[in-house]
Amino acid sequence: MLNIQDMSFASSSPYPEIAPACQNNVYASWMQDNMGGANSEMTAVSSYIYNNLITHSYEEISYIFHKISIVEMHHLNIFGQLTLQLGGNPRLWTQRGRSRLYWTPGYNKYPTALPAIMENVLHNELAAIEKYERQMAAIQDENIIDNLKRIVEDEQIHVEIFRDIIKEYCMKQQ
């Protein structure tokens, strides 16, 4: 059984100040995609709220999804503030060529069996980490990089929690 009383859902490191060096439309677009693209914090928040509701028969797991959704909401806010300070509009949309695509709940998958739920959330967390690491390699603003690094710390904690749930609950069901 998972020990949720001692579980941490976010890194203990403080979040850095949100203060990019200057406005940059390209970086603003990337941060906006982190808010409202297919692989985004909004997608994570909505997925975890849904998962919290449908895993009600697993109290610990439902609670974990609730707590992680709160951390993801904080990330959503950070990316919104970065977007705004970089000169962008913090709407829940992303840019694809000349088109703007608004965030949609259609970005989510809606598995209902616990093993499929956990594989889906694990995949999405790993994809977010990979995306943020690609951005860190391309961005030349230390403040944005520091914010991305700090968010990745939280996402890595979520990966470990989800892997623990898979070991504890899903391996037994197979």
UniProtKB/TrEMBL annotation:
Pfam families: Rubrerythrin. Residues 41-165 form the Rubrerythrin diiron-binding domain. Gene3D superfamilies: 1.20.1260.10. GO terms for molecular function: metal ion binding; oxidoreductase activity. InterPro entries: Ferritin-like (IPR012347), Ferritin-like_SF (IPR009078), Rr_diiron-bd_dom (IPR003251). This is Bacterioferritin. It comes from Murimonas intestini. The lineage of its organism: Bacteria, Bacillati, Bacillota, Clostridia, Lachnospirales.
